[in-house]
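Tutorial, part two.
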Amino acid sequence: PKSAVFKEGEVEKVYVVENSRVKIKNVKTEPIDENRLKVLEGLSEGEEIIVNGNYDLKEGQLVTVKNQ
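Running the prediction step on this input gives:
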């Protein structure tokens, strides 16, 4: 979803979870529609991105994943 991506300047980023900790990754996207983006670069298959509660997180912060 588009809401999972944020920008710092012109750089698109997402929060991912690695070993229960937040990691920020740079990505490159293209729009699919007004609510969705396709990630072209920066993520590997199977990585978990943080979609809800993805604001004001810090690199290395401990998180609990609740898949819904």
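The mean pLDDT is 92. In part three we will examine how such features are distributed along the chain.
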